[in-house]
Amino acid sequence: MMVSVQFWSYLADLAATRTWEVELTSGCTVGALLDQIYLRFPQLLPMRTSTLVALGVEYAQVTDVLAPGSVISLFPPVQGG
Description:
- By secondary structure, the protein is an alpha+beta fold.
- The chain is 21% helix and 27% strand.
C-alpha cells in the first residue's frame, strides 16, 4: 500500500523534500513507518523525541495502523510567543 509522508518547517529543509511516497506492507503501524523514515532520512533522527506526528488531521500514536492512502505529517513542536 502507498502512503504519503509530509515534512513541515525545518524538517522539510533537513529532509530536502516536503513529501515522500513510500510503499508499505498491509497492517504497517505508524511506529514501523517512523523507523523507515529515520533510516531513509537519518538527519531527522536527532529530532525524533520532539517531532510531532499526525495521521490525517489527528495526532498519531505509534500503534496506529496505516491504511492505503494514509497521509502522515511530521512537524516540529508548536511554539508561541
